[in-house]
């Protein structure tokens, strides 16, 4: 199977390549350190599986890269390989079209199995992420939508309503409506309290 690596750290890419070199059924056909290069090269190389980090420097993140790649005529499977494990990261990645979600701390055998499963189109989660999602299903807490989580993430970075509206291509009135829903679901009354509650519940990360 043909693999493509997307990670903004050369040392990490080198480490992954060294691991995969010993697997006779895996061939790395390219790599990229940002979303734009990833989209261009994936379209050219047509890999079976893309290993995608979530943080890609100052440009679009791994979630946006995943969304764009899954819109290509020949869609590869995308296995997120990251250090982040918040509900927001997991939900956004899966909503964007990721086949699986694996943590970089996973042992090599787990990575190999996940890649092969992703190539077959099977959904795969690292045990830690799967356990986290099971806890979320058993005790879901506030059922925030993906858009509400996006707004909370922008709030945590100090964005005002106008900035949020511009970033998400929605109106300020829509932002206010979403915020009112967020406050109600989290049982808070202020922006600061909403961000604090979301961080404490693992919905977003600072």
Provide structural commentary.
There is one protein chain. The chain is of the alpha/beta class and 206 residues long. Helices cover 52% and strands 13% of the residues. The protein is built from ten helices and six strands; from the N terminus they run βαβαβαβαβαβααααα. The protein has helices spanning 10-20, 35-45, 62-69, 87-95, 108-119, 127-138, 146-156, 161-168, 172-186, 191-200; strands at residues 2-6, 27-32, 49-52, 77-82, 100-103, 124-125. The protein has a six-stranded parallel sheet with strand order 2-1-3-4-5-6, with helices on both faces. Helix 5 (108-119) links the parallel strand 5 and strand 6 (124-125). Helix 2 (35-45) packs parallel to helix 3 (62-69), helix 8 (161-168) crosses helix 9 (172-186) and helix 9 (172-186) packs across helix 10 (191-200). The longest helix is centred in the C-terminal third of the chain and has 15 residues, at 172-186. It is globular, with a radius of gyration of 18 Å. The protein starts with a strand and ends in a 6-residue tail after the last helix.
The helix-strand sequence is EHEHEHEHEHEHHHHH
- Dominant shape: globular
Instruction: Give start-end ranges of low-pLDDT stretches.
Output: none
How many DSSP helices? Answer: 10
Q: How would a textbook summarize the main sheet?
A: 6 strands, parallel
Q: Which secondary-structure class do the elements indicate?
A: alpha/beta
Query: What is the subunit arrangement here?
Result: single chain
Distance between the termini: 37 Å
Radius of gyration based on Cα positions: 18 Å
Q: Got a strand count?
A: 6
């Amino acid at each position: 199977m043909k693999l493509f690596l997307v990670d903004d750290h050369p040392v990490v890419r080198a480490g992954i390549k060294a691991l995969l070199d010993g697997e006779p059924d895996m061939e790395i056909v390219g790599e990229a350190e940002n979303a734009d290069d990833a989209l261009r090269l994936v379209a050219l190389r047509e890999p079976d599986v893309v290993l995608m980090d979530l943080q890609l420097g100052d440009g679009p993140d791994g979630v946006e890269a995943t969304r764009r790649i899954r819109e290509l005529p020949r869609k590869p499977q995308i296995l997120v390989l990251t250090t982040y494990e918040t509900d927001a990261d997991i939900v956004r990645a899966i909503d964007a079209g990721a086949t699986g979600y694996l943590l970089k701390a996973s042992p090599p055998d787990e990575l190999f199995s996940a890649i092969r499963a992703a190539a077959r189109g099977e959904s795969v989660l690292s045990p830690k992420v799967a356990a986290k999602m099971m806890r979320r299903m058993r005790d879901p807490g506030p059922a925030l939508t993906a858009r509400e989580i996006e707004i909370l993430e922008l709030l945590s970075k100090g964005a005002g309503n106008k900035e949020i509206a511009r970033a998400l291509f929605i109106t300020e009135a829509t932002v206010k409506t979403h915020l009112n829903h967020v406050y109600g679901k989290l049982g808070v009354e202020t922006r600061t309290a909403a961000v604090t509650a979301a961080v404490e519940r693992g919905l977003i990360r600072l």
